[in-house]
Structures are given as structure tokens and as C-alpha cells.
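FAQ: What does the model actually see?

It sees only this:
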Amino acid sequence: MILLTRLSGSPFVLNSDLIERIDSTPDTIVTLVDGSKYVVREDLRDLVTAVRHHRAEVIALSEALQIAGAAVTPSAGHQESDPVRPALSVVTHPDEHTDEHADARTEAKP
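And it is asked to produce this:
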């Protein structure tokens, strides 16, 4: 959620995941995926920065929770059958060569 200000001066929070478009005509108009529109005092660039900071904060908090969760030792009530949440990882398709040194390593194999 990001904090915005209506033209009337009243603050409100908006779920930034629902933003479809932001226009500056010269007022900043936020259009949501459901077609709702909000005219806000914030500048277009400030709004984009707020969304980026919010998303970065979500990612950072997620990482902190994963690290904190890994440091916690299982309690006496922990059962082996209890579900364990897997860590997030990036999966690439085997045909995609994102590593510039992949060809050199492939040629060097016996």
C-alpha cells in the first residue's frame, strides 16, 4: 500500500498492485485495473518512486522473514510431517543461455 493525497488534501492509501496506468495531464491521474480513477497531488515521478520503494520493501521483508525463519530451531511440538515452505529460487529454461561463459565451459568438458 502506498500513501497518496487527494486534491482536497485528504490522505488515503492505495494498493499499488492494482495500478494499471498513471497519467500526468497536468494533474496526476491514477487508473486502476477495474477502471477506477483517482486524481492525486503527488507528481508522476514521485508516485512511480513510491511504488518502486513499496515493492522493494516487500522483497526485503520477505528475505528477512526467510532468514529469520531459517535461524529458528524446531520446537518440541514440531513434527516431521509439518509442511516446510520452500525458499524462492530463479528457474531458467534449459535452452536459455543467460551465462556468457556457458559456451566456454561446455567446450572444456572432456
